[in-house]
Specification:
Elements: H1 3-20, E1 66-69, H2 76-83, H3 87-94, H4 100-103, E2 113-117, E3 153-155, E4 164-171, H5 178-187, E5 192-196, H6 198-201, H7 204-215, E6 220-222, H8 253-271, E7 278-279, H9 288-295, E8 301-303, E9 307-308, H10 322-332, E10 338-342, H11 348-361, E11 365-367, H12 369-373
Parallel strand pairs: 3-8, 4-5, 4-10, 4-11, 5-6, 7-8, 9-10
Antiparallel strand pairs: 1-2
Helix pairs in contact: 5-7, 5-11, 8-9, 10-11
């Protein structure tokens, strides 16, 4: 074979080999390929998938609702506050698993697992921390400087009290969250007048409340709310039992006197304070006969109110929310107002978190009845 033919054959072989190693452009790369015919790479950021990615997500679906394991010291109301719901809603969610909750929210035991939210991503509400005041004196309020008995007087407001309001709390029935309410008042240097009944002061929860009052006479003073919380005008009523009040008609003068004097013995024992001459009638029920009977045993200062929070009624029964209570008090309080609340008020604790700064923003001093009367 001549040299020319060998060189031609060699060139042909090299050409065929070169063609066989050059890939053809992918059909799917049409319009998006590189100049060399290869598809261009598309970068996908970390944590994302491309539009054509069909890989299933690895996260499992969230369960319906949120569960909470009850701890020692919890109450249904404290759990409701923490999770932004109501006692009644918690009962509805959990009575199937714990039937006793349907009738009595206090039958709560550590270790129970409660549904606390219907939504899968709910977290507890942040605790609203009160703004601590270094000392009660910093607020300018005082308590315990009782006015003399003197002639009989009935007050719904305190004339000439200046730019101040009296915060008063009845203690004649339900006492949760009374301890927490008093601790909030202490933390914020708020003075108040408490009206306990003798019967409730004798309970375990009542004795805790009375011990706090005894430890802080600079902030808290007491008035008499009778022994059994009977209706002193028509009879009936009563707490925690109606039995002592079922007398078949209007109470006698002696019955009324005994209701005050029997309670006073207990209140002095547990609080260290003599409630004379301050008292408040259960249900606000008074008439001339009642006022005459109580004055004869030293109770010449009868206190009603001009701002009623109606905090004794739960939301489920048409009662006010915490915001409604706070708004009512902040908007309606005037110089010398007497605000009626209860240590067992359903939304009172949460309302006070709003009410205290709201009233102070209006320049009102939050104090006791004695402070306003002096």
């Amino acid at each position: 074979m001549s040299g020319r033919r060998v060189r031609a054959l060699l060139a042909l072989v090299l050409t065929v080999a070169a063609c066989s190693t050059t890939p053809s452009p992918s059909p799917s790369a049409s319009g998006s390929g590189s100049a060399s015919g290869r598809p261009s790479a598309t970068a996908t950021p970390f944590g994302t998938t491309s539009p054509t990615d069909t890989v299933a997500p690895t996260a499992s679906p969230s369960p319906a609702g949120v569960s909470y394991v009850v701890r020692a010291g919890d109450t249904l109301s404290s759990i409701a506050r923490a999770w932004g719901t109501t006692v009644q809603q918690l009962q509805s969610w959990n009575a199937g698993e714990y039937p006793s909750l349907a009738g009595d929210p206090n039958t709560l035991h550590a270790g129970w697992v409660l549904i606390v939210s219907g939504g899968p991503a709910t977290t507890p509400l942040p605790t609203i921390a009160p703004t601590p005041i270094a000392t009660p004196a910093a607020t300018g309020c005082s308590a315990g400087n009782r006015v003399p008995g003197g002639s009989a007087q009935t007050f719904t407001t305190i004339p000439g009290a200046g730019h101040a309001v009296a915060l008063t709390f009845d203690m004649g029935g339900r006492l949760d969250p009374g301890v927490e309410i008093l601790n909030l008042l202490i933390a914020n240097g708020v003075c108040a007048t408490i009206f306990p009944t003798g019967a409730m002061a004798q309970t375990t929860a009542g004795q805790q409340v009375m011990a706090i009052i005894r430890a802080h006479p600079e902030l808290f003073e007491i008035g008499n709310h009778t022994m059994h919380h009977c209706n002193l005008v028509s009879g009936g009523g009563g707490s925690p039992t109606a039995a002592p009040c079922a007398i078949g008609g209007a109470p006698s003068a002696q019955f009324i006197k005994d209701e005050l004097t029997d309670a006073a013995t207990i209140l002095k024992q547990y609080s260290g304070q003599d409630p004379i001459p301050y008292w408040r009638a259960p249900y606000g029920a008074i008439n001339a006969a009642v006022l005459s009977a109580v004055a004869s045993v030293g109770y010449t200062k009868t206190f009603g109110w001009d701002v009623d929070t109606i905090d004794w009624k739960p939301i489920a029964d048409g009662g006010p929310t915490a915001q409604q209570i706070a708004t009512k008090v902040i908007s309606r309080a005037v110089d010398g107002s007497v605000v009626l609340m209860h240590l067992g008020g359903y939304e009172t604790l949460d309302a006070l978190h709003i009410m205290i700064p709201g009233l102070r923003d209006r320049g009102l001093l939050l104090t006791s009845l004695s402070d306003l009367l002096n």
